[in-house]
Amino acid sequence: MTHDHLIFGVTVDQIDRLNALLRTITANGDAITFCDTEHLQPQSVSTLGEAIFDAALAVQDILDQVDEQKL
Q1: Which of 8, 15, 55, 63 could form a disulfide with 24 if both were Cys (CB 3.0 to 4.6 A apart)?
Q2: What is the count of structural domains for the chain?
Q3: What angle is formed at CA 23 by the lines to CA 22 and CA 28, rounded to 5 degrees?
Q4: pTM (2 decimals)?
Q5: Which tens digit of pLDDT belongs to each residue from 20-29?
Q6: Structural domain of residue 33, as residue ranges?
Q7: Alpha-carbon distances, residue 41 vs 28, 29, 36, 53, 62 (angstroms)
């Protein structure tokens, strides 16, 4: 039996922020996927896409921080 060793730590604040960002990504993705785009303003789709992109970058930043937080 092998045992996995912990190599980094995550703060509760980071987990909370990741959770909020993932909810943002999925909510905006749902809006783009399931909305009737005929009823959206022309700039709405690009605004939703930008929000998804920005949230994904923020997730990457947090994961980079976590990677540096060695135990």
Answers
A1: 55
A2: 1
A3: 100
A4: 0.81
A5: 999 999 999 9
A6: 12-68
A7: 15, 16, 11, 19, 32
Name the CA radius of gyration of the chain, rounded. 17
Q: Look at phi and psi of residue 2 and say left if phi exceeds 0, alpha if psi is from -120 to 50, else beta.
A: beta
Contact 49, 25 (CB under 8 A): no
Calculate the average pLDDT of the chain: 89
Provide the residue type at 8 as one letter: F
Q: Which two tokens stand for residue 14?
A: 């980071």
| Range list of H helices, 1-71 | 12-34, 44-68
Tokens standing for residue 64: 């980079």
* Backbone CA torsion sign across 63, 7, 10, 18: positive
* pLDDT attached to residue 2: 66
Q: 12, 28, 33, 22: which is closest to 56 by C-alpha?
A: 22
